[in-house]
Amino acid sequence: MTSNKTCNTVFQTILGRRSDLDSIADAVGLEWAPGLLDALVQPTPPPLSFFLSFPEPRNGLWGIYVVILQKKARKLRKQSKAISYFGSGKANDVRGAGIRKRTNTYKDDFTYLPDMLFKAVHQEGYTITHVRMVCWMPIPAPALRARAEGLVLALECSLSMTFRVIRPMKSDSQYDHLLPWTAASVEWRPGCSHYSMIERIRGDLKMSAEEIAIIDVQRKARAKEYHRKYDANIQKNIDDKKRATNHVSRNRILEEKRFYCDPCDHSYKGERALADHLKSDKHRDAIKGVQKPVNTTAKYARRKAARAARAAARTYYCSLCDQTCDDQTALDKHNTSNKWHMENVAAQAAGLPTRKRYLKAQAARREVDVDGESKGLGKTL
């Protein structure tokens, strides 16, 4: 295959001699599916079931895969030939998917299936039943990737021609005498539309290994940042949608009174909130008919004014901490168990300065008299 229409001329540089192919295959650790090499030297092609024994695609590998399509209706499978398609997976993504990044797209509902497979699925009643690996290698080092990609594409082309999975072309007569089996002898129809060796090989074969390694590090960094932003954006969209849904759901729950307490005439947003309410004193008081006085604004203002008056008069006052308490009980508790007070007592005994934790709050309160008018008293020592 030396014609520019059927072969990229770069392959002549990479695989000009058989020794080139062997050295690249050894360098990348090429492996074959069990029994494949033996099948290639048999006088008759293997049955379709032969492909089903191959391993399924795995992460961290490059390789060639076969896709099998059969009729959706099982009773029609004996009447209609299956379709076989050979492809290759050579992804360099930072997540190491490799061949699986390609094979995971072979679903009946995938929009960008290869043209012949798309028509078979959507017009002829076929379904994708199996995807298996034909040969594989670990994702190669950056310096080997261009040559490894050339090897994969060349093997894909050779195997596709050998197993008769490429649609008939005018140029077939040039190669038919080199192939072991005829198109009529295989149990499947072709699913490939072109020779893979016309495809472009990524990478620059003229670059040194060091230059390729530097470029690969930069590429991975860009890809990693892209995936980070992409994942963050996806998560943000999910969170926004969930938040909006939850908001609507909560409002609907309240409106429909799904978690409703009839004695208290109050609706809650969830079962747990309702359960907590049923255990509360407020609910028990409502059941017993007890009505507690409401803390009105006027009452709150009176309490605030009384507190300010005590602060100004230094009633129930701890000079060590500069703190005013509400009553004698609170002051006694402060003097005996308050952490800050005990530390200040120890500091005073040691001749160290005490900590005025409440100084600003007390000063602010002393600015207000009983009537709530500014007196400008400031701090009184």
TrEMBL record:
Stretches assigned to coiled coil: none
This protein's name: C2H2-type domain-containing protein
Keywords assigned: Metal-binding, Zinc, Zinc-finger
Pfam families cross-referenced by the UniProt entry: zf-C2H2_jaz, zf-met
Molecular-function annotations in GO: nucleic acid binding; zinc ion binding
Organism for this UniProt entry: Zymoseptoria tritici (strain ST99CH_3D7)
Domain C2H2-type: 261-283
Top-level taxon in the UniProt lineage: Eukaryota
Keyword Heme: no
Matching InterPro entries: Matrin/U1-like-C_Znf_C2H2, Znf_C2H2_jaz, Znf_C2H2_sf, Znf_C2H2_type
